[in-house]
Amino acid sequence: MERLVRALTADVIDVIYETDYDDNTGRAMLNRFFDWLQFGWGAKAYGDDTSFSHRLLESLNFWTILEGTHLLTLMLFFGSILLVDLRLLGLTFRELPISTVERRLLPGTIVALVVVLATGGLLFFAEPARYWHNLMFRAKLVVLVLAFANIAVLHGLIERNKADWDSAARPPVKARWSGAVSLASWVLVMATGRLIAYNWFECGKAQPDWVNASQDCPNSPKGALSADGKPVVAVRQ
Question: Across the strands, what pairs with 206?
Answer without folding.
Answer: 225
